Amino acid sequence: MIRCRPLFLFALGTLVALVSLRASAESLYREDAYNALISDAKAHRVGDLLTINVYEQSSASTSTDTSTQRTNGLNGAISVLSSGRQLGGSLSQGGTFDGGGTTQRANKLLATLSVNVKEVLPNGDLLVAGEQILKVNNEQHKVNLTGRVRPQDISSDNVVLSPRLADAHIDYLGEGDLSERQKRGWWRWVLDWLGL
Fold first, then answer.
1. CB 154 within 8 A of CB 147
2. β-bridge pairing 159-161 and 86-120
3. How far apart are CA 163 and CA 18, in angstroms?
4. What would the mean pLDDT of 28-44 be, rounded to a whole number?
5. CA-to-CA distance for 112 and 69, rounded, in angstroms?
6. 78 and 86 in contact (C-beta within 8 Å)?
7. pLDDT band at 149 (very low <50, low <70, confident <90, very high)
C-alpha cells in the first residue's frame, strides 16, 4: 500500500495541473474564407480575382459652318462757293469670312483581363483594379483598369463586361518603335505654335 501512495499522488497532481490549465481550441470555420458548397465561384471579398471583358466602342462627329460679312462706309464732300471748285472723297472698308470644319473620331478596344478585388464597399459593391502587359516584337502594350462592380452584374462564370463598370478608368498604352514613329516631331509642334 505504501508503494501505491506516491503513484496515486503523482496521478492526482497531474490531474489537478491539467484541470487548472485553460482549454483553448480554434474553430475550423472561418467567416472570411467561407464558401458554401452550392455557391457560385464569384468574386465577393478582398483578394478575389474577377475577369473583365473590355468591349469599348465610341464614335463622335462634329460639324461647324461659319459665315460672316461686314461692310463699313464713310463718304464726305466739301464745296467751296467762291471759286466754284468742289472737293470730295470717300472711304470704304469691308470684309468677309467663311469658315467651316468637320471632326470625326472612332475608337474601339477589345481585351480580356483579370483584376483583383481591392475593397468591398458598405453597399456590397466591389472596387477592382488590374493591369495586363503584353509584349509583341519589342512593342509593349499595357492595359490598366479600375472601376466599381455590382455583385449582380457578375456572371456565373465570374466575368463582367466593361460597360457594366461604374467609375471605370481604362488606359491602353503602347510603347516601342512603332509607337514612337506615330508621334509628331518637336519641330512640328513649334511650327504649329507659330501658326505656320
1. no
2. unpaired
3. 63
4. 66
5. 55
6. yes
7. very high
Mean pLDDT of the chain: 76
- Give the amino acid at 140: Q
Q: What are phi and psi of 119, to 5 degrees?
A: -160, 145
Which residue type occupies 133?
I
The string over 93-109, giving b where at least 16 C-beta atoms fall within 10 Å of a residue's C-beta and e elsewhere, is eeeeeeeeeeeeeeeee
Quick one: cell of 150?
A: 455590382
SS3 120: strand
pTM: 0.52
DSSP calls for 123-166 = TS-EEEEEEEEEEETTEEEEEEEEEEE-GGGS-TTSEEEGGG-E
In three-state secondary structure terms, 81 is coil
With cut-offs at 50, 70 and 90, classify the pLDDT of residue 78. Answer: low
